[in-house]
Amino acid sequence: MKKLVKAEILWTRKCPLSCNFCAMPNDTERAPVDLMIKGLRNLKDLGCEFIAIYGASPLYDFEGLPEYIKAAEDMGILTTIIVDGVGGDEDKKKIKQLYDVGLRSLTVSNDFNPYDKSSRLKSKAGLKLIDWFDKLPGTRDMEIVTTVTFNNYMEITVSLYTLLEKYDDKLWFSFDF
Q1: 132 in helix, strand or coil?
Q2: What pTM did the predictor assign?
Q3: Terminus-to-terminus CA distance in the chain, angstroms?
């Protein structure tokens, strides 16, 4: 029997951005953190070794997130959070709190194309956040996630080389098509 090695956790749907192609509703409440931590135990029993916490940006619904990440890391489940980075210094403060409880991976959303004001904001802010996170001691990796569209596939191919050169072997990319 194959075991589950990665899970994606929808932490929140709260988001102040209005990206043209996003369909994330903004009105759903999250489950209580203690119940979500019980879910982590179930995932661990299934062999989960890594979770990606997403949902617009988990930083928009920060309450309980440090406890959740600490619980996962204490169970031996590696974590990353997927963020947009538009919160600037406030995002850095929150991510530093998460780093202090064990977070060693950061994933940012980047559109590689200025579709709209929200896309421009998050793409620029996300790259700045990666630069900052990379300087924290003991970081494991960073990732850029993007949705590939007819409007951005050329920018992605050009940008990949520059970014890979800059971050060497610590940077990952993932794509939604």
Answers
A1: helix
A2: 0.88
A3: 29
